[in-house]
């Protein structure tokens, strides 16, 4: 009767699927969100 060997784990600190996001200021991010919502046809609350 043979024992199953344990599989070797990857180190926790090294991620292979690391995504890089653009650096935005808060004003730029808000402008993008507002432009997207106005493109969807939503209006501002009064």
Would you write up a description of this structure?
With about 45 residues, the chain is an all-alpha fold. It is about 30% helix and about 0% strand. The mean pLDDT is about 80. This is IS256 family transposase.
Keywords:
46 residues; mainly alpha; 30% helix
Major sheet details = none
Cα-atom radius of gyration: 23 Å
Number of helices: 1
Q: Span from first to last CA?
A: 75 Å
The total count of strands amounts to: 0
The proportion of residues in beta strands is under 5%
Helix content: 25-40%
Helix and strand pattern: H
Q: Could you say which structural class the secondary elements and strand pairing correspond to?
A: mainly alpha
Mean pLDDT over the full residue set = 78
Tell me, what's the shape?
Answer: elongated
Low-confidence stretches: none
Describe what is shown at a glance.
This is IS256 family transposase. With 46 residues, the protein is mainly α. It is built from 1 helix and no strands.
List the helices and strands and how they pair.
Layout (H helix, E strand, L loop, with lengths): L25 H14 L7
